[in-house]
Amino acid sequence: MTTSALDGIIQNVTKLREQSRDYIQGFKSWVQLDSSTLSPGRQLAVKYFIVAVILFFAQILFGLLAATQFIFPGFLYEILDFSVNRMVHINAMVVWMLYGFIGCVYWLLEDESGTEIVGLKLGNLAFWVLTGAVTLVVLVYLLVQIGPGKDSSLWFINEGREYIEAPRWADIGIVVVMLIFFYNVAATFSKGKWSGIAGVLTLDLVALAGLYVAGMFYMTNITHEQYWWWWVIHLWVEATWEVLVGVIMAWSLMKLLGVRRKIVETWLYIEVALMFGSGILGLGHHYFWIGTPEYWLTIGGFFSALEPIPLVAMVVHAVYDSGAHSFKTGNHPALAWIIAQAFGNFFGAGVWGFMHTLPQINLFTHGTQWSASHGHLAFFGAYATINIAFFYLAIQHWRGDVWMAGGSQNAWRWKWALGLLNAGVLGMTIALLIAGYEQSFIERAVEGSTWGGYFSAQNHPSFQNAMNWRLFFGAVTAAGFVLLVWDLLTIGKTETRKADVIAEH
Amino acid sequence: MSETPLWASESFWKKTAIWVTAGSFVILVVLTMDSLSQTSAGGKRVQAYSVINKKIDYQFKKDLNKFMPVIGEDEFLFGKQLTEEEARQLVDLGKKTTQSKNCMNCHTLLGNGAYYAPDLTKAWLDKGWISKDTRENMMINFLMDPEKNARTFGSNRKMPDLNITEQEAKGIVAFLKWMSSIDTNGFPYNFTTLEGED
């Protein structure tokens, strides 16, 4: 290569760098957010929130691609196959929610413990390690996709296990990062002060990190493998995550509505008792059909039928507190999303879960679009909503605790974002439910679950129509997401009125 | 002011939360130990890997009111009898291949996975392979060149070419045959097997 060509490349790179620096500068002066006004712990939290939102976008994007493939199977065939899109769709979801939770905890940690975060440097390092690892894993998913049937594929490309596909090297990294996170939480509370919220949070994080290890082994025996795999997925999503959300919700309610600490903490204990009391053995509903003994039909059916109870309690709690405090809050979008969480969690996780959790029904619905319907409403209702509520809490503080209300300038943005996101996810849920009913009926009950039966159901007009509606509502969700991001970046920018300080009452 | 009643007391609920959680977890651990021992390969529920040397069927049992796997006489896979260790290795290769090819993000296995392609739990027994004589070859050809041997059932959904080698394909077939012998408590229901057509 001649030196002049090299010079040309260097010039181009420099130009590109300058251009991107200009864009970033322009963006910064447009959003007018200065992170130096935040405490160090909250600066770290914001980093997690930013990555969470980016991954939320990836979740929606790859969901749309996969949804399109249901309608046009040739779309991106052998470029980005359904398996790849669907994997990135669900992995981005799991990881953005975890990023959101970690961000929430770092945000409330200093306030709750009354002291500075002990291992802040370590926390920052862990953030960059985790983010680098996530980027690398996603790039390998997209560019390498699959490997030969050897251990090396499982270690470096993909473990091929739904939700926890991340290769083994990344598993180890995730555990290390979670341990650093756990250390920061436990050590900070130890240095500052403990509280009921602090205790529940710390113990929950032990369980969260410990359970992940159960999913890190390869086994030839698929019954054993799926047995442990559910330990991770179920005990995360239907137990430890729910409790983590309870903690975040408890702290948020004190800040948003000024609910007394004694009340939220008592409620938190009740919820832990109900959640773990039903959720731990509710794990049995995943052990109906994977080769495990018959007693799981009884145990799983019974305890998972109880799983909605804590979610009902949470609705009662949210509605009662909002009423008792006359909806008086300085942050209307956050409260609106908290209410969306209470109902979304109850309907998505509770009602939609209960509908097909009894073995007599699950025999026909297991492995159909019923699960997809339940999954969409439950993950959104229980976890996306609380993260979004917290984003509003954070941005309000970041803007200097300004008034954020239904009557504010440009309030239409958060209202429409709330409406579009909820309507979009609910629309997808109903479309998938219709597809699930049709599949259970035609594929399972009538045609006896053969491949022929599977495709009769897939080719049926009511299934095809449902898939069209799902894509349409997916687009509605995407529109809501765009509006949400725009709103989060601009809300309160020109607001000068301070929000009322909500005292405990 | 009167004393706080028990049902509204923080410490009561704290203790309840701890005891309920610990109690549930202990029960789960005990059940886990029992379940794992009942489902190790070679037991009644999950067959030894050498079951791939046998004929496997899935039939409705009136006395139990559910579908059960039925293990029959010798029926070697690819015409060769394997020892338990050889069978384990072949099934293991198949299982590992299904993971490294990410099968689970289109298919379901034991009903778990994604819903873009059919369930693989009883794939070995499916009528789609037409007859016992054609089954093994059809499966191998399909796995190695799914585009040319596409089985779309009128859906236009085609499995992509996953660079599966012949040995890996044999492993997958062995894994599917072994998996079809697992006692899944009657899931899937009402399944008519290829054997049932005879």
Summarize the topology.
The complex is a heterodimer of chains A (505) and B (198).
Chain A: H1 3-31, H2 40-71, H3 82-113, H4 120-143, H5 151-156, H6 168-191, H7 196-213, H8 222-257, H9 261-282, H10 295-306, H11 308-324, H12 332-355, H13 359-365, H14 369-398, H15 411-446, H16 451-459, H17 461-490
Helix pairs in contact in A: 2-3, 2-4, 2-17, 3-4, 3-6, 3-8, 3-14, 4-6, 6-7, 7-8, 8-9, 8-14, 9-10, 9-11, 11-12, 12-14, 12-15, 14-15, 15-16, 15-17
Chain B: H1 10-38, E1 54-61, E2 66-74, H2 84-100, E3 108-109, E4 112-113, H3 132-144, H4 166-179
Antiparallel strand pairs in B: 1-2, 3-4
Helix pairs in contact in B: 2-4, 3-4
Write up this protein:
The complex is a heterodimer of chains A (505) and B (198). With 505 residues, chain A is mostly helical. Helix content of chain A is 77%, strand content 0%. Chain A is built from 17 helices and no strands. Chain A has a domain at 37-218: Cytochrome c oxidase-like, subunit I domain (Cytochrome C Oxidase, Chain A), CATH 1.20.210.10. With 198 residues, chain B is an alpha+beta fold. Chain B has two domains: 8-38; 49-197, Cytochrome Bc1 Complex, Chain D, domain 2 (Orthogonal Bundle). Chain B contains four helices and four strands; from the N terminus they run H-E-E-H-E-E-H-H. Chain B has helices spanning 10-38, 84-100, 132-144, 166-179, and strands at residues 54-61, 66-74, 108-109, 112-113. In chain B, strand 1 (54-61) and strand 2 (66-74) form a beta hairpin. In chain B, helix 2 packs across helix 4 (166-179) and helix 3 (132-144) crosses helix 4. Chain B is elongated, with a radius of gyration of 23 Å. The relative contact order of chain B is 0.15. The interface between A and B is large, with 84 and 86 residues.
